Amino acid sequence: MSGFDASIAEIARRQHALISVPQALAAGGTRKMVRSRVERGHLEPVDVDVLRVGGAPLTWEARLLAPILSAGEGAVASHRAAAALWGLEGFGKGVPEITIPRGRRYRRAGVLCHESLDLDRCGIRQRAGIPVTDPGRTLLDLARFVPDRRLLQAAESARRLHLSSWSEMIAVLARHARQGRHGVRRLRRLIAANAHRDAITDNDFELLVYALLREHSLPEPVVHHQLRGPDGRVLVELDLAYPHLRIAIELDGAVHRDPDVFERDRRRQNGIVLDGWIVLRFTWGTFVERPEEIVAEVRAAIRLASAAA
Length: 309
What we know:
- By secondary structure, this protein is an alpha+beta fold.
- The chain has helices at residues 3-14, 21-26, 31-39, 60-71, 79-86, 135-142, 148-160, 166-176, 184-194, 202-215, 259-274, 284-289, 291-308, and strands at 18-20, 43-47, 50-53, 76-77, 97-101, 112-116, 124-127, 130-133, 222-228, 234-242, 247-252, 278-283.
- It has a four-stranded mixed sheet, with helices on both faces.
- α5 (79-86) crosses α6 (135-142), α6 crosses α8 (166-176) and α8 (166-176) packs parallel to α10.
């Protein structure tokens, strides 16, 4: 066996018996060398610029990886195929499903292909030797296509397998939230309806409201904005804020039920108001039951502060 054959055999061994033509060229071959091995049956074409070791079985994993290799850098397994790779309950090895960066073109019979503007916000992992969206992004992608009960089943499965947590799902939501982004609203509603209060930290609550505002095309608030005194000392740290408009958004999570915290919050709020800030307070109950009120009141505060500026 030549050095080139040994190199491509090693690559194929790690990739379900597949190798792309660019990988073969990078391993020291030429297109003529690749072509000769195809002619002799040592390699078999399975997609554009993707070859399989002759006689190797075409497994589900190989059928999923082949379009990823053909589509090129940045292509990943996603959606229901990603759920199957992660072993989420209720998802079997069905039609290969991949995501590619927006602007690239890939169309093949028997492959579901999505284009995405925000793959850069996604953690790309390796699972069974296949690049795949991280579990949190996988759940967000599923939120567009599967019924609520099946989405909850997938989220609970991810938590049970220690692949994700409510906090991690919330962080994914905050990273991807924008108006028109598929899946954001349904994943937010699922978290709000099913994450018990003791599983939601104050920081999680802040990110959920941050995502809610971004989802409705409101300006991106600053998280944990600090108000400082003349000497530079931090006087107050606001949950969310629009500093240029002097709007503070304070969120009352579980810790705020403590009487001492309640009293401290009121004293702190009075100081912020006297310093010329608009202060809005929202509870977890309002977020779960009437999120549209939060959006409407923040929008009204922005209009009021902008008019006064």
